[in-house]
Design brief:
seven-stranded mixed beta sheet, nucleotide-binding, ATP-binding, EC 6.1.1.18
Length: 666
């Protein structure tokens, strides 16, 4: 089996099947259709990555289409931001299109539907229509205007377009079935009257098409082969297909290919809000400085904070394409940016909480320029010169008057190495009237070959460049800020999500440009903010060198830790037991066993799972259980490797249908 077909996700399987069934490869066409009513956020990157990734994989065009059907909420600012963000991520679209391009065509089709008795003008209030729709367990009732004649409906609809009625006075509805189990099929709205300036069509229209009517028909007009959307649109698929079937009869000669809608699980991230409406509230209530505030999960915010396109694309790749909703830990995103910046960001020295150190045996007025490596991960990064002098800054946390043997930084009588420089020993301190240490007096030695345990970063006082440093933390303190029915998500805003400090930096940073990224050694990754000006640098903290939030989580007591370890040991054993009898179980019990395996998957170390990749071919049940477990771990951030791909590929070639079906879902 080729490398290309080993790792197909379920959407790629659908496409491959369509191609095998006769769909010409040149007919493949995808789209990303944002509504320009806000900035794109990290959740959108999954949809962007899927559609544009398929375009790259199959060398197929991808349209960027703005579904601009609600002028009350849409602005050109959002259009520009969306284009900027997608381009920054490294994707290129074939055509820039707008649903508003199709307003006349949609209107003409709506007129044809009225003539065919498939749409009518309703003149009731929205509240009355909502009541008539019924409930999921109770059928709806027909509108008294459902029986209007074709002539009457045409007259009213044309007058709606001409601006003769007030907003809300009439709507156009599709005539489907008020008793359909799917409430979206109960005579959905197609048009409403709205007097608002449209950012592209101005005042040309005062009736605007509803999203469900516009979206699928725009796909059809553009001859999109696969309309990919998130799971919340799955109930809309029936209506999508119904509308598609109506217009297909009107245009099949010119537009021969009806699009196919398929859904994937959207990206949910812990400690993060994904609703544009709620993100707008954060902006409007001043909790953040704007859509591009570095604490915001918007692509603009992430870019300003210092995240890289490659880190975000790697994150999306690790998350993968799934059919079921799940929540990804935000620490995986942070891991990806650390991993990327570790390779590319030059190391520099900066002190954010300074304590002056005076090296008493170093000559006054003397300075040296010492060699410092830029990036040990990059052989081509070279080196730079950093100045050393009698007075330097170190971090306050790096010194204690008295400390135990496990404190490997500077203490009275103790020695540490200064990065790229000498070894110093602390001899005495100078304090202010309140007893606070304001200076540490040290001596240095040129015997740099001596073995000392601690190494500190530092900055020469006379050469230090002052800069504003903005230390950002997570915007929310709760893992699921909008997951509490009895609480407003705003209650979980972190009051300490931004701390502003004055930093002292080595002079090589004096000319740093907006967007440049660095590792402040021992502190984290930082980039130059848009607010920077010559002689007034501003740095944003992108991410720390380690996951500091992991330390804040409550640690289990000793007996709890033992119990958890035992549970992890037991999990793989239980999964094996469930697998042994899996293929002999009736379907209902198989589903129950599968759910149990999925719940145990989080407690299985990958090494234990990989050990089962070599399970004998005849033990199909155990291999199925391993696949189910593996799928859950991949969804939760496990990175694919050659061993995983080989195991899945072998399963796909097996004769056992259950085994093949599980493998094809990964």
């Amino acid at each position: 089996m080729s490398e290309e077909t080993k790792s197909l996700n379920f959407i790629e399987h659908i496409i491959e099947e369509d191609l095998a069934n006769g769909l010409p490869k040149e007919a493949l066409r995808f789209r990303f259709p944002p509504e320009p009513n806000g900035y794109l956020h990290i959740g959108h990157t999954k949809a962007i990555g899927i559609s544009f990734g398929l375009g790259e994989k199959y060398n197929a065009p991808v349209n960027l289409r703005f579904d601009d059907t609600n002028p009350a909420k849409e602005e050109q600012e959002y259009v520009d931001a969306i284009k900027r963000d997608i381009a920054w991520l490294g994707y290129e679209w074939e055509n820039e299109l707008y649903s508003s391009n199709y307003f006349q065509k949609l209107y003409d089709w709506a007129v044809l539907m009225i003539k065919d008795g498939k749409a009518y003008v309703d003149s009731q209030s929205s509240e009355t229509m909502a009541e008539q729709k019924g409930t999921p367990t109770q059928v709806g009732t027909n509108s008294p205007y459902r029986s209007r004649t074709v002539e009457e409906n045409l007259d009213l609809f044309q007058r709606m377009k001409a601006g003769e009625f007030k907003a809300g006075e009439h709507v156009l509805r599709a005539k489907i079935d008020m008793e359909d189990p799917n409430m979206l099929m109960r005579d959905p709205l197609m048009y409403r009257i709205m007097y608002a300036h449209h950012h592209r069509t101005g005042e040309d229209w005062c009736i605007y098409p509803m999203y469900d009517w516009t979206h699928g028909e725009s796909d059809y007009i553009e001859q999109i082969s696969h309309s990919l959307c998130s799971l919340e649109f799955k109930p809309h698929r029936k209506l999508y297909n119904w509308f598609r079937e109506q217009v297909y009869d009107y245009a099949k000669e010119q537009l021969p290919m009806p699009p196919k809608q398929r859904e994937f699980a959207r990206l949910n991230l812990s400690y993060t809000i994904m609703s544009k409406r709620k993100l707008l509230r954060l902006v409007e209530e001043g909790k953040v400085s704007g859509w591009d505030d570095p604490r915001m999960p918007t692509i603009s915010g992430l870019r300003r904070r210092g995240y890289t396109p490659n880190a975000i694309r790697q994150f999306i790749d690790k998350v993968g394409v799934a059919k079921r909703e799940n929540v990804i830990d935000v620490s995986l995103l942070e891991f990806c940016v650390r991993e990327d910046l570790n390779k590319s960001a030059n190391r520099v020295m900066a002190v954010l909480d300074p304590l002056k150190v005076v090296i008493t045996n170093y000559p006054e007025g003397k300075e040296e320029w010492l060699d410092a490596e830029n990036n040990p991960e990059d052989d081509n990064a070279g080196s730079r010169k950093v100045p050393f002098s009698r007075e330097i800054y170190i971090e306050k946390a790096d010194f204690k008057e008295e400390a135990g043997n496990k404190f490997f930084r500077l203490k009275l009588g103790g020695e540490v190495r200064l990065k790229n420089a000498y070894i110093i020993q602390a001899n005495n301190v100078l304090k202010d009237n309140n007893g606070n240490i304001i200076e540490v007096h040290c001596t240095y030695t040129t015997e740099t070959e001596k073995r000392v345990k601690g190494t500190l970063h530092w900055v020469s006082v006379p050469h230090a460049v002052e800069a504003e440093v903005r230390e950002y933390d997570r915007l929310f303190m709760d893992e699921s800020p909008d997951g509490h029915k009895d609480k407003d998500f705003m209650e979980f805003v972190n009051p300490n999500s931004l701390k502003v400090k004055t930093g002292y930096l080595e002079p090589s940073l004096a000319e740093a440009k907006v967007g440049e990224q660095f590792q402040f050694q021992r502190l984290g990754y930082f980039n130059v903010d848009n607010d920077s000006k010559p002689n007034a640098l501003v740095f944003n903290k992108t991410v720390g060198l380690r996951d500091s939030w992991a330390k804040q989580k409550p640690k289990p007591q000793h007996h709890q830790a033992q119990k958890q370890a035992q549970q992890k040991r037991l999990a793989i054993s239980i999964i094996q037991q469930l697998g042994k009898k899996y293929t002999n179980l009736p379907e209902e019990k198989q589903l129950k066993a599968k759910a149990e395996i999925q719940s145990l998957a989080k407690d299985v170390p990958y090494e234990d799972l990989e050990a089962l990749f070599g399970t004998a071919v005849k033990k199909a049940g155990t291999r199925i259980a391993v696949l189910i477990t593996l799928k859950e771990q991949l969804k939760n951030g496990l990175k694919r490797n050659e061993q995983i791909d080989a195991f899945i590929a072998k399963a796909k070639e097996d004769k056992n249908e259950l085994l093949v079906a599980e493998a094809n879902e990964i």
